Amino acid sequence: MEQQDDTITLTVHHHGSAHSLTLPASATFHDLSLAISSSASLQEIPPENQKLLVAPKLGLQKPPFDNSRPLSQLLPLDSPKLKITLLGSKPQDIKSLNDTIDNNKQRLAARRAAHREFRAPPVSRRPPAGVHTLSSPSSSAYTFGRCEPLPYLPNPERSLKFLERLRDDAGIKFAMAKHRFSVPLLTEMNPAEHTTHESRTLGLNRNKGEVIELRLRTDAYDGYRDYRTIRKTLCHELAHCVHSEHDRAFWDLTKQIEDEVEKGDWTRGGQRLTENEFYNPQDWETEGQRSDDEWVDHGGWTGGEFVLGGTATSSPSPDQGGLALSRREILARAAEDRVKRGQQRGKGPSSSGSEGQS
């Protein structure tokens, strides 16, 4: 800043450029504002659009500017730190900005008006095809990982369809999803390997849900047992995923699963056709006392090894309670049993409810 006896020269910074203005020695902030508005180099910014930032000490000065005291008294003109910065815009710049704002407001208003006039047609949402017992997308994980028949027995493809029918049974799927049962393998049981002089095992659950085996075939290998009988055996084996022993908690869970399978079977309306249990002839809890020596199982198995397709000559487990019979012995004994039962009941040889030949 330069000061002479009758004039002072000030430097005003605007948009990174320095502009020199010469004013009378008695000039005030008001006079400085007028000089800026008449300067072509400062783009003729009017006083009402000006703000002067003075450093140090004075800070921001706004219109109307002080016209009572000269700048020589207010500003440290001899200080090298003195800096005056002009903040302001030309009228045409402000007008252009206002025009842009107005145009944006008009477009937004037109958009809102068009949105109010538009009436979207109602969306009709149809339910997905089929019947779904559970809405949870994760319920599909609670099922059997794979179904495998015994390939060395007759018609393994028919056994596979039987196992897949059990896996896809609506009631079974409902109960398994509700209890979060996930079984890696569902397979069939070879009657010859699980038939002794004392008992016939109808199903096995190994390692609490690692493998479930079901006796699908008749002892004579000439047909398949009743589907609903096998399904109830499967309910029994699913309960062994939680309880190994045949205690009160096990039987309560078995009964609960049976009821859920019946109610969840939407293919039959979810209701019992009669008040009778669909397993015939006797209740599960007295299964060990049956006269025809059929056992659902002897509790859940743990440990040991499982080899799919074991032979009939393999060593029987301690739970089977006797030596395994050969296939010829099984066929002979099954025929004798059918004749005896038919004679005792006054009927010809026929399949019992527990065997369920088809």
UniProtKB/TrEMBL annotation:
Pfam families to which the protein is assigned, alphabetical: WLM
Domain of life: Eukaryota
Location of the region described as Disordered in the Swiss-Prot/TrEMBL record: 306-325, 335-358
Gene Ontology molecular function: proteasome binding
Start-end of Polar residues biased regions: 349-358
Positions of transmembrane segments: none
InterPro entries: WLM_dom
WLM domain span: 135-340
Name of the protein this chain belongs to: WLM domain-containing protein
